């Protein structure tokens, strides 16, 4: 009687390899399908880190209802963070497009500078082309009406929906991270601390610094009669995320324009306020917030902002420094594991059973005879 055919034509090893291939293929399809909504999930993760201390204080300590607290935090995040930030972004893009389409004001300023310096460094077609390229680059990286109101609404809704379940199912979410991420417990702890430090420094700390600097910049420009002071204050808010070079790129050109127009007092006043007040308030707030909230190296922030904005758009202000921080943490973990591996190997070698040579000779003697 012939043997019955096997239930499966694959060996256990082939089944294991095919399972991995299927997982990778499905994960690739999912990532490709959700690629345009990546910012929603990343934004939900950032808001989860920001609001988790509040959630723990209300739910775990005061025993408030988990669903009620989650909904309250979602409403607060939408009204206080998402809505104002989106409105500022839309306002910024709209005004940049206005200046890109109408170059007369910019050309008038450039002609004045050329008359004062006696050096002709631009022509109108070149300026218009440069402005249009700048508008195109910025519009791709800031949320705008051109990207579609429906898409923007879906991203915000998906972000809040994800954040709600991250809060209501917090234990399962964190347990899943610990179970499926390929890191040791102490490495996960380091990554969590790096995430908390980077998010606190770049979301809470840097947002507060940017708000203060933008307010001071807008008030200074308004006091010294610079046109569109509110708009330039909004520009200063976003530029302040760039260490050292941020707000000087706003009030510096304004001071130069005032000086070239013959308004020496206003130009000098803007320079004094910028150098003495705005720049120093930045340094002072960074020192204070570094002790209370979190601190990362300015070089990591600068390189991370350049990297993050190019990849993630406006969320790159936070995600870029986070990527660099994670890279540094993983390099430190890799170095520590490499140092630890020889020690563990040596320890295992020393703990192997040790045989006595004399005993070996005694046991081997009868065999020789």
Automatic annotation (TrEMBL):
The transmembrane residues are 16-34, 71-93, 149-167, 203-224, 230-256, 268-288, 300-329
- Low complexity: which segments have biased composition? 360-369
Annotated segments matching region Disordered: 345-369
Provide the protein's localization. Membrane
Q: What's the name of the protein? A: AI-2E family transporter
Supply the source organism for this entry. Hymenobacter taeanensis
Q: State the GO CC annotations.
A: membrane
The Swiss-Prot or TrEMBL record describes its family as follows: Belongs to the autoinducer-2 exporter (AI-2E) (TC 2.A.86) family.
């Amino acid at each position: 009687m012939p043997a019955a055919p096997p239930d499966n034509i694959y060996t256990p090893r082939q089944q294991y390899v095919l399972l991995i291939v299927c997982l990778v293929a499905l994960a690739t399809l999912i990532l490709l399908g959700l690629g345009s909504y990546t910012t929603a999930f990343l934004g939900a993760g950032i808001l989860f880190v920001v609001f988790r201390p509040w959630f723990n204080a209300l739910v775990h300590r005061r025993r408030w209802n988990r669903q009620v607290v989650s909904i309250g935090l979602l409403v607060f995040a939408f009204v206080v963070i998402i809505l104002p930030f989106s409105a500022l972004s839309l306002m910024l893009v709209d005004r940049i497009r206005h200046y890109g389409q109408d170059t007369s004001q910019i050309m008038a300023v450039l002609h004045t500078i050329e008359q004062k310096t006696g050096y002709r460094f631009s022509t109108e077609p070149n300026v218009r082309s440069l402005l249009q390229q700048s508008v195109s680059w910025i519009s791709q990286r800031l949320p705008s009406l051109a990207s579609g109101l429906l898409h923007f609404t879906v991203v915000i809704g998906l972000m809040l929906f994800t954040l709600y379940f991250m809060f209501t199912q917090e234990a399962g979410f964190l347990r899943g991270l610990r179970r499926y991420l390929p890191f040791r417990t102490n490495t996960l702890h380091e990554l969590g601390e790096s995430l908390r430090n980077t998010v606190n420094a770049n979301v809470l700390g840097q947002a507060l610094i940017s708000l203060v600097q933008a307010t001071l910049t807008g008030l200074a420009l308004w006091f010294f009669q610079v046109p569109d002071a509110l708009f330039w204050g909004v520009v200063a808010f976003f530029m302040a995320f760039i260490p050292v070079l941020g707000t000087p790129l706003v009030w510096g050109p304004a001071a130069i324009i005032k000086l070239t127009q013959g308004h020496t007092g206003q130009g000098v006043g803007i320079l004094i306020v910028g150098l003495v007040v705005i720049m120093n308030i930045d340094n002072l707030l960074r020192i204070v917030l570094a002790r209370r909230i979190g601190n990362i190296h300015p070089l990591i922030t600068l390189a991370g902002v350049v990297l993050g904005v190019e990849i993630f758009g406006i969320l790159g202000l936070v995600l870029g420094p986070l990527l660099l921080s994670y890279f540094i943490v993983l390099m430190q973990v890799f170095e520590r594991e490499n140092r630890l591996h020889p020690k563990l190997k040596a320890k295992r070698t020393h703990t192997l059973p040790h045989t006595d040579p004399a005993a070996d000779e005694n046991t081997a003697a009868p065999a020789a005879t």
